[in-house]
Structures are given as structure tokens and as C-alpha cells.
Amino acid sequence: MWLPCRCTTKYVAASIRRGVSASFLHVLRRGRSSWNSAAFMPESAGFEGVSGRDALHDYSVSHSENFWAAVARQRLNWIRPFDAVQDCDLSQGRIKWFEGGKLNVSVNCLDRHVHTCPERVALIWERDERGSEVRYTYRELLEMTCRLGNLLRRHGVKKGDCVTIYMPTCPLAVASMLACARIGAAHNVVFAGFSSEALAERIRDAQSSTVITVNQGVRGGKITELKRTVDAAVQSCPTVRQVFVAMRTEKRVEMADRDIALEEEMLKEDVVCEPAAMDSEDVLFLLYTSGSTGKPKGLVHTQAGYLLYAALTHRYVFGYHDGDVFGCVADIGWITGHSYTVYGPLANGGTTVLFESTPVYPDPGRYWDMVERLRINQFYGAPTAIRLLIRYGDQWVKKYDRSSLTTLGSVGEPINTEAWEWYNRVVGEGRCPVVDTWWQTETGGICIAPKPSEPDAEIVPGMAMRPFFGIKPVLMDTEGKLLTSNNTSGALCMAQPWPGMARTIHNNHQRFLETYFHPYPGYFFTGDGAYRSQEGYYQITGRLDDVINVSGHRIGTAEIEDVVVSFTLFLYPYHICDAVCSDEAHLSDFILIISVTQFAKRLPKTRSGKIMRRVLRKVVDCDLEGLGDLSTLDDPAAVQEIIEGHEKVLSK
């Protein structure tokens, strides 16, 4: 694996203006008695009548073009300024931002920081082997990216091509993403837990001629044969001409004529790589959903809008400021890893952690040992991992110094109240705000979260709460009518576009329109249900295709699971035959009568922590032929256990 050489490298760079002064960018810390909008967000000095967070959000929605234009001009480095802020029409599914503008994403993530602080640490690679972390400065990461970009160019990868990356979370994977961005190629990062069949499907759909992988992956003390998986996949991918192979371990692997030793060839390349001038709406990457809700979709994200939104949400939701260490433990194969391990932190000139291991390897204290060693300030993880760690007891947390932590984040699914309270009380010692973030692959970045907020504003356990700047959520009823009152539930939609949203589904724009824009014309349909409290806060209730209709009322999985896991036994109720409810229907008003209950030791979950509910539905419907690809599951054996358990239930 490519390691930093720690030697002086001659670097040539054009002088670039730093977009926003670091002193202005840090989020005001908890406990401040007043809110200075201009210090919080310098651009707001030009927004008439803005004097607080709520007013700033109102302005970002009511004067959307002014808001996003000001932020884009200040926070991105442009090769050519944009002519138009947006050309969007949700009724037609048309989304275009910052047209006429040209920029390079890798320059925004690397070069401009190398110009001002070349020896600042960009990446801390928390390898699977505990205590063996490796740090990479911005200068070293730029050098690695340029060498790799030149190598790809030398082997015929050109602007507009799509490179498939099948790698674990490691610095070379980040450099591969940035090298693609530098030369104008799109990247298609495929989660390194997928089977050869799933990988092949994504390579074919992306029409990749180039694949980048490693000889072996290491996770939780176990070795995975990634090169072998790629070899099997490309047998059914006639477009693939070359496979670049990096060495994560010392084991040599069989190399075919199409295979190229990555690190060996990188050493032959120059450390300066001319960045391509990309249009704002050129494709930056494809990212295929995990298939937890059906056939995987290759969602398309573009250059300027995505990068701006990832950077802005990273800084303001988590209260990130210069000098902090940001610890997002998501795999780079998911959108969370793209936005909050790679692009958001690096665009902000931050220090970001690449976590290669698992929360329980070699013991359940792994996260908190890492927090102590790396002095992590913001920690961003999944509710599934939090619930897992609760079972091992508080001692594994309290064993380590967590005084560096300032913010705790939750991502992947709604966090239940019990897990939220443990996270806040035990991990954060009651002094760190917990931000339960709601967003999707489709949204590109966080859309609803408790922060940013007015100083000392309340945070309600288990609620995403407040829309981010430029985000206007609405609730719709079953007849497609807008629900304007509070204390109500409905389908969660977005009433206006934002720069970070996906532009299409690769090779299937019609499916994009039918999935997100046709269900509620004029709105972006998220597929999720939500409850809006009396105070106007939002709580995500789960996927609408998982909603249970009872006596005319819709009950979401998140609501049910939050109640169920509050008991000692953890159950998964999949059929409710009756209910009694009051006039104002929320879960607390229901008496649920569960006709059939199946006990399961574990549920089928992706390695990103999402429950594969479609698999549970197929088991309940006895449609085992329709289970689909299970290779993304953390442990596919869980499915067989549930199938066997269901057969026992039916036989009673």
C-alpha cells in the first residue's frame, strides 16, 4: 500500500485566493449567549434582515438564488465564474446549478490547501490493526493523486470515462476518487463487500473500461480476496481493458495481462498533474444504492453543486472548524463515506479519519480507543453500531478518554430514543450535542438535523428536527394534498431544489422521474414518511413502502421499533391485525395487537447498518426466489436463520 514518503517534494502551484477566512468559518460553540450571523456565516453580512439561525434559514429558502450564489462564490475556487445560479423545475425533474461555471473538484479539495498549509494532516488512516494509524498531509495526498491521475491518463482514461473503484477504506481509494476528478473521469465506487455478480452488474451498467482494486482487504482481523472477486466479475464485463491492483497485504496475487501493479507504476509518474476544467454539471460520480429497497440505482452526482453542499453541511451540521479531527466511520462505498469522509472534510481543508475496521475489533472499545488516540472532535456513526455497543456495557466506553469530543452524529436510519440517550449520556458525557441526521444517497448531503441552531436551542432525542439551509420539507397526505398543520404525519417531500441533489439515474432517467418526481408533481418525493411535531420539528418514521396501514392510519417502522426496543426483548413485528387509536393519531395513541411474532437473534443488515426490510418482506411472503442479491449484507447467514425461524412459526 502506498505510504507517505515524508520527503520534500517540489510542488508547483498557481497562487489561489483562499475563499473564506478560517477565523470566520468556525461554528460558535455551545453556551454562547448571542448569535453573530456574520461570524457564523460571513456571506450573511450581505443578506438583508438576517440576525439569527432561523432568519438565515428563512432567507436561504425565500431568497434561494441569492443565498446559494453568495455561498458558491465564496467557498469554491472557480476556473470560470458561473453565469446562472440555477435552472430547476421539479415538475419536470430538471436540476441544473451554476451553469457556465468551470472548476476542478480535486483542486478545491487539495491544491488550494496545499498552497496555504501543505503540512496539515488531510487523512488519518485508522488501519484494521489497532494502533498502526498512518497520517497523510495535504501535500502527500496531492502528490499521490497527481501520480495516479497521470497514470490513468497514460493508460487511456479520458474526460467523460467512468472508472470503477472496488477498494476498502484506505488512502489510495481516496486518491483514486480524487485522481478521477482531477482528469475529468467519473468514478463508480463499489462497496468492497459486494459479490462478483453485484460488482459485475455495476461495472457493466457504468460501462467502465478501468477498474482499481487491491490484492486483499483486511477488516475485523479477516482477509477478503478482493482481487479474486474482481477477476470473477470482469469475466462477464467485456468493456474492461485494465485492472490496477494495489497491495494492501504482502501476499502476491496472480496477475493477468490486463492487470497493472498500481504502486509500482505510480512511481514512474510526475507529481504534477494538470487538472481538467470541468463544467458545473459534468458528472463527478455514480453511486449505486445498496439494493435495500429493490434493484440498485446508479445515482448521478455532478461537480459544483454536490461539492458545495457536502462542504457546507459538513461545516455547519457538525460545528467543524479548522484544526478539528473529523471521525466518520462509514465505508467509502456508501454516500456517507463520499460526502463526510472524503469530499466535505477535504473541501473544508479538514483532517478526516479513514476507518478500516469494525466497532468490536479487537474488542468493543475500538471506537473509543480511536477517539482517545486520534483526539477526534466530531464522531459520526450508525445507530446499529450504537445499539450493538450498548450490549457490551458502559465500561468499554469509560475506559478511554473522550474529552476531545464536541459533537456526536448519527446516520443511516432513525436512532431510537434509548440508543440516543446512551450515546449522549455515556459516550458524550452529557456535554456533546447529538445530531441525528436525515438524508439519502439521492440528496447528496444532510437535509434535516438538529444543528445548526440558535445557541442553546433544544435537541429532542430521536428527532432529526430542523431543515438545513436551502431545504424546504413538506408533508403530503395519501391524496397528494399538502399538510400545512403541525402535529401531523405524511409523506416527506421537498418543495424546492438544492445544489447537492442527484441529477438522474444512470442510463434510466425515466425511472428517476417516476421514482422521485411523478408521485407528487412539483415536489421531490423522498420515499420516507415523517411526523411534524407541534413545534414544527421533523421526525422520520421510516420508508413509506414499510408503512403499516391500520384503521386508516399509517404507522412507520421507526415508530414501532422505537417502542419495541424500549423493552428488554428485541422483536420484529411484521404483521399487525388490529389497532385502537384516538382522533389525533400518533404512535403513542395506538394499542398494537401483534398477531404473529417471530423471534430473531439478528436482522439482515448491510455493513452500513441498514436493515434489509425487503428481505424480511420476501421471507414473510414466502417468496424466497425474490430475495435478490444478498452480498451486501454484513452476514448473509442471518437470512437463513430468519427463514428457518419463519418456517417454525408457520408450522405451529
UniProtKB/TrEMBL annotation:
GO terms for cellular component: mitochondrion. Residues 111-498 form the AMP-dependent synthetase/ligase domain. The keyword GTP-binding does not apply. The keyword Ribosomal protein does not apply. Residues 54-109 form the Acetyl-coenzyme A synthetase N-terminal domain. GO terms for molecular function: acetate-CoA ligase activity; AMP binding; ATP binding. One of its GO terms (biological process) is lipid metabolic process. Its EC number is 6.2.1.1. Keywords: ATP-binding, Ligase, Lipid metabolism, Nucleotide-binding. It catalyses: acetate + ATP + CoA = acetyl-CoA + AMP + diphosphate. Gene3D superfamilies: 3.30.300.30, N-terminal domain of ligase-like. Transmembrane segments: none annotated. It comes from the Eukaryota. SUPFAM superfamilies: Acetyl-CoA synthetase-like. Belongs to the ATP-dependent AMP-binding enzyme family. This is Acetyl-coenzyme A synthetase. It comes from Poecilia reticulata.
